[in-house]
Amino acid sequence: MKLSEIKEVLLTLENIEFQLEDGTFVPEHFHVTEVGAVAKHFIDCGGTIRHEKFVNFQLWNANDFEHRLKPIKLLNIIKLSEEKLGIEDNEIEVEYQNITIGKFDLEFNGKNFVLKNKTTSCLAQDACGIPAEKQKINLSNVPINQNSCCIPNSGCC
């Protein structure tokens, strides 16, 4: 989800709820403690230099169980970050601590914001020696060569 998309969604909501992919919810007394612009400049294992930019949201739970972040408040935090930090309309990455700090992509399911699990991957599989995934076939669908000596009841095996 891009920053422009979350701003559009926030305009339609009365409350903000974040949900993990497994269906559990971030406690409703969460805080958004950071909104930032993150630039990643790196080289992959194949030697390609890469640049990535994204918007970072950090969610945090405190002991203030009566706290509720309203959509207009989050919109104001986003607008301030755009003005003061020059944040661009990039994809959002959410940091949220469960057992350790996790990084998540963000989607909206029509009711809640969903923290989508992120995975790692090799960006240079062709240069890294990662074999292409083999095609899986059912052996019962492989045609039998009638000229082969190893057919059923041929006595060759």
Total tally of structural domains: 1
By DSSP, the count of extended strands is 6
Largest β sheet strand count, sense and barrel closure? 6 strands, mixed
Low-confidence stretches: none
Distance between the termini: 60 Å
The SS-based structural class is alpha/beta
Mean pLDDT: 90
- List the secondary-structure elements in sequence, H or E: HEEEHEEEH
Number of helices: 3
Description of the molecule:
With 157 residues, the protein is of the alpha/beta class. The chain has one domain (3-114). The protein is 17% helix and 31% strand. It has a 6-stranded mixed beta sheet. The model has no long low-confidence stretch (mean pLDDT 90).
List its salient traits.
DUF6428; 157 residues; six-stranded mixed β-sheet; single chain; 31% strand; alpha/beta
